[in-house]
Design goal:
Helix content: 55-70%
Strand order of the largest sheet: 1-2
Distance between the termini: 62 Å
Radius of gyration: 24 Å
Oligomer: single chain
Number of strands: 2
Structural class: mainly alpha
Length: 102
C-alpha cells in the first residue's frame, strides 16, 4: 500500500513547472502587450512630430495623452481581461444584436 502513495507524488524526471504565460495574460504595465506597444508607438511618433514642428515645450502634450490613454486601457483590462478579443470578434464576425426565431 505504501507504493501507491509514493506514485501519486509523480515520477522523478517527469515533473515540470507550468509557465505563468500559459495561464496568465502577458501584459505591459497592466495592458495587453500588443495594445500597449501600439499606443506607445503612436504617442511616441506624435511626440516626435510635435518636437519637430513646435519645439520642446509641446512634447508634454503627447506624454499626457499617453498617460490618459494608457490609464483607460488599464481600466478596460481590469474590467474585462479579454476586452480586445471581444472587440476584434465583434469587428470581424459582425454579430447581430438579435436574431429572428422563425
Amino acid at each position: 500500500m505504501t507504493g501507491a502513495r509514493e506514485r501519486t507524488s509523480g515520477a522523478e524526471g517527469y515533473e515540470a513547472e507550468i509557465k505563468r504565460s500559459m495561464w496568465e495574460r502577458i501584459t505591459s504595465f497592466g495592458v495587453p502587450r500588443l495594445w500597449a506597444g501600439l499606443w506607445g508607438a503612436l504617442c511616441l511618433y506624435l511626440g516626435l512630430l510635435m518636437l519637430y514642428a513646435f519645439g520642446m515645450a509641446m512634447v508634454l502634450i503627447p506624454a499626457l495623452l499617453w498617460m490618459c490613454g494608457h490609464g483607460a486601457l488599464m481600466a478596460l483590462t481590469l474590467y474585462d481581461p479579454h476586452w480586445d478579443d471581444i472587440f476584434l470578434a465583434q469587428l470581424t464576425r459582425r454579430y447581430r444584436a438579435y436574431y429572428d426565431a422563425g
